[in-house]
Amino acid sequence: MRLDDQPWEGKYHEAVERLSREEAQWRDAETLLRQLVGCLTRAMQGAHDQLDSHIERLNEALAGPLAAAELGGVVRSLSETIDNLGARPYTPDQRSIAITRPRTEHGSSVQSSLSRLVDRIIVLPKLADRANDLRHDVANAGDLVALAACGDRLADLINEQRMGLQREIDALQAVLRHVTGRLDEMTQYMARELTDQATGETNGQVLDASVAHEIRVLGEAALELDDVHELRERVNASLETITACFREFRDREGARLTAYRERAEAMRLRIEQLETERHTLQRSLEREHELSQTDTMIGMPNRLAYEKRVDLAYQSWLVSQRPLGIAAIDIDHFKSINDTYGHTAGDAVLRVIGQALLKHVRPVDFVARYGGEEFIVIFDGTEPAEALQVCERLRGKIQHLNFHAARQLLRVTASIGLAHFQPGDTPASVFERADLALYTAKNGGRNRCIMG
Ligand SMILES: Nc1nc2c(ncn2[C@@H]2O[C@H](COP(=O)(O)OP(=O)(O)OP(=O)(O)O)[C@@H](O)[C@H]2O)c(=O)[nH]1
Fold first, then answer.
1. Which residues form the signal peptide (predicted)?
2. What is the pLDDT of residues 108-149, one digit of tens each?
C-alpha cells in the first residue's frame, strides 16, 4: 500500500511502530555490544598487569545499566593506560606485546564479531556515513587497540542512534499533543455554538412570550374600556412595548451573530493552519519512511524494506499458496577486494552490483541490500525452476561486469542460495534455508546458484 493511501493517523501509528521496532533492534545491538566488549576484555585480560584493574572496572560498569558518565571515565582511563603502554619501548619481558602485536586468534574473532555487528545494524540515515566509516575501520583494524577504539565508536554510534530515535519519538508525541489540543479547541467551539444556539432559541421564546402577553393585555383592555381615546392610548402603549421587545431582541441577536461570525472565522483559520501542519508532517513522515527503508550508499531498498516486503508476501502466500521464494546473493571473496584495492573500491563494486541487480531483476521481483556484501531477492509468484533461471541470469550478469581497479580489469562473482516457501515455513525459516544453500554454493567453489 502506498503511504498516500493510508489515513493520516495510520501513518502516525506506523511511524511510532517503526521507531519502536528500531529501538528494539538497538537494544539487541547494545546487548551484542556488551557481549563484544566482554570478548575484547577477555582477549586483553592478562596482557598487562596495569590493564587488568581497568578491565575489571569496565566489566563491572557494563554489568549494570549503562551510565554514560561512569563508563566514559572507565573508558578514558583504560585508553590512557593503553596509550602509555604503547608509548613505552618494547622489552621482551613485557606482556604488553599482546596488545599491539598483529591480530591474535581472539583478535580476529573479535574483529569478525564487531564486523558482523556493524553489518547488522540499520542506522538512521544521518548516521549512515559514520556507520560506513566504522565498518571500514573495523575491517582495517590491525590490532586489539584499534578494535577497542572501534568498539568505543560503535557504542557512541548506538547512543546517538538511541538519542536520535528518542528525539523522533518526542517530536511525534509533541505533534500528537498539538493535534489533541486542536481537537479540544474544536470540541469546545462546538459546545459553545450549541449553548449559543440555545441562547438564540431562548431569546426567540422570550420575544414570543412578551408579544403574546401584550396582545392578551390589549385584548382584555379592548373588552373593558369603552372610551376610544383611552383605548387608543392603551394600544399605543402596547405597540411601544412590543417595538421595544423587538428592538431588544434584534440587538441581542445582532451581538450574538457578530460574536458567532468572529468565532467561526477564528476556527476557519485554525483549521487552515492545522491542515498546513498536517501536510508538512505528512511530507516529513513520508520522507522518513522512505529514507528508513533505503540503503543510501547504493540507492536501493535496505533490510528493513525487505523485512516488511517479505512479511506482506508471506501473509498473502498463507492465503493464496502461490509460489514464493527468497534468494540470498553474496559477493565472492569480497574481503580480498577490500584488502587489495581498498574500501572505496569495495564500495564502488557494491554500488555497481546493487544497481545491476536493480536493473536486471524482473519488475515483479523485489531486490534489497540485506547488509554488507549480501543482497536478497524475493520471487513472488514464481515457480522454483523459473526463479533459479533468474538467479542464474543475475549471477551471469555479475560475472560479466567489468571493474577497473589499479589499472587492472577485475572480475567479480557471486554465489546464490535460493529457497521457496513450503507448508509450515516462515520468512525466517526460508531465509535460513536460502542462507544454507548459499553456503553450499560457497563450499562448492562459489560463482554458482544452489536451490535449498
Ligand atoms: N567496502 C565495503 N566493505 C564492506 C561493506 N560491508 C561489508 N563489507 C566487508 O565485506 C567483507 C565480507 O567478508 P567475508 O564475510 O569474509 O566474505 P568474503 O570475503 O566475501 O568471502 P566469501 O563470502 O566466503 O566468498 C568484510 O571484510 C566486510 O568488512 C561495505 O559497505 N563496504
1. none
2. 777 888 887 887 777 887 888 888 889 888 888 888 888 888
Residue closest via CA to ligand 1's atom 6 equals 372
Please report the atom of ligand 1 found closest to the CA of residue 334. Answer: 20
Kindly state the average pLDDT of the residues 196-223: 89
The CA 115 to ligand 1 mean position distance, Å, reads 9
Q: How far apart are the first and last CA of the chain?
A: 31
Rounded to two decimals, the pTM is 0.62
Interface predicted TM-score of the whole assembly (ipTM), two decimals: 0.97
Tens digits of per-residue pLDDT, 406-421?
A: 788 889 999 999 999 9
Residue 66's region, left for phi above 0, alpha for psi from -120 to 50, else beta, is beta
Nearest to 403 by CA among 337, 329, 335, 333: 337
- H or E stretch including 95? none
Q: What are 216-219's contacts with CB under 8 Å, separation 24+?
A: none
Q: Using CA atoms, how far apart are residues 11 and 189, in angstroms rounded to an integer?
A: 27
> 3-state class of 447 per DSSP?
coil
Task: Quote the cell numbers at residue 224.
Answer: 373593558
Transcribe 199-243 into DSSP letters.
HHHHHHHHHHHHHHHHHHHHHHHHHH---HHHHHHHHHHHHHHHH
Say if ligand 1 is within 6 A of residue 442 CB: yes
In the 8-state DSSP scheme, what is residue 448?
A: -
Strands of the 366-371 sheet, one edge to the other: 366-371, 374-380, 324-331, 414-420, 449-451
136 Cα–ligand 1 center, Å: 10
Q: What is the 3-state secondary structure (H, E, C) of 338-404?
A: HHHHCHHHHHHHHHHHHHHHHHHCCCCCEEEEEECCEEEEEEECCCHHHHHHHHHHHHHHHHCCCEE
The strand pair at 324-331 and 414-420 is best described as: antiparallel
Q: Hey, CA dihedral for 71, 76, 77, 79, is it positive or negative?
A: positive
- How many CA atoms lie within 13 Å of 299's alpha carbon, on the beta-carbon side? 8
Task: Print burial letters for 222-252: b (CB count within 10 Å at least 16), e (below 16).
Answer: eeeeeeeeeeeebeeebeebbeebeeebeeb
334 ligand 1 Cβ < 6 A: yes
- DSSP classification of residue 90: P
Q: Are 448 and 441 in contact (CB under 8 A)?
A: yes
User: Is domain 295-451 classified as CATH 3.30.70.270?
Assistant: yes
Looking at per-residue pLDDT, the higher value among 298 and 87 belongs to: 298
> Which residues are 370's β-sheet partners?
none
